[in-house]
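Field log, afternoon session.

UNIT: design team B
ACTIVITY: writing a sequence onto a fixed backbone
BACKBONE:
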């Protein structure tokens, strides 16, 4: 005390008073921060998924509220990197870190839509309609343009008038099957969103 000047004395007194007052009121920074975290996620269900944006394919954990009871409205309330995923080990880039906005965006497309030739309007259609139409158009185009042999008689089995864009974030198994389907049809133009 003898070594303290007046300024140092008031500084230490004010710091002590503020700290003890907050403590008396129950404010201690560490428990308060821990409580906020636990409160937000404590009742959520964890679902593992893959970030849909780019070909890195980072693993994510989506935290959802709602236990599927009739009066509980389910909603995803938090998304973070999956620490157990071998690609990203819990990290996410800024795009992936903003995935919650993507999930809740009013502009998010949730159903197949169709715009007829010459029309300026998109019409919602069912998945059955969409898949039937795609299959029908693919078959018609393949029947009309499939090339089994070249003019020189070499077997090539090519279908070059239709291409496919697949998801680069698919699992190995999905990628394998997708390749099998596309190549067995003779499709040459095949890519994914890694370069988009
Ligand atoms: S978090 Fe970023 S790097 Fe990872 S897949 Fe999503 S967009 Fe790509």
């Amino acid at each position: 005390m003898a070594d303290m000047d007046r300024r140092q004395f008031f500084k230490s007194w004010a710091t002590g008073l503020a700290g003890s007052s907050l403590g008396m009121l129950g404010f201690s920074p560490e428990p308060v921060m821990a409580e906020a975290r636990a409160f937000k996620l404590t009742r959520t269900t964890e679902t593992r998924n893959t970030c849909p944006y780019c070909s890195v394919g980072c693993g994510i954990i989506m935290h959802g509220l709602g236990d599927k009871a009739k009066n509980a409205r389910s909603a995803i309330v938090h998304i973070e990197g999956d620490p157990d995923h071998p690609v990203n080990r819990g990290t996410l880039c800024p795009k992936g870190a903003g995935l919650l906005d993507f999930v809740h965006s009013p502009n998010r497309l949730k159903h197949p839509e169709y715009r007829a030739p010459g029309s300026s309007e998109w019409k919602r259609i069912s998945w059955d309609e969409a898949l039937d139409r795609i299959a029908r158009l693919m078959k018609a185009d393949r029947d009309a343009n499939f090339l089994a042999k070249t003019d020189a008689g070499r077997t090539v089995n090519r279908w070059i008038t239709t291409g496919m864009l697949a998801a680069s974030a698919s699992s190995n198994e999905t990628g394998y099957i997708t390749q099998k389907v596309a190549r067995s049809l003779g499709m040459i133009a095949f890519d994914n969103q890694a370069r988009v």
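LOG NOTE: The pocket of iron/sulfur cluster is lined by residues 51, 53-54, 56-58, 88, 92-93, 95-96 (CB under 6 Å).
NEXT ACTIVITY: expression trials, pending approval
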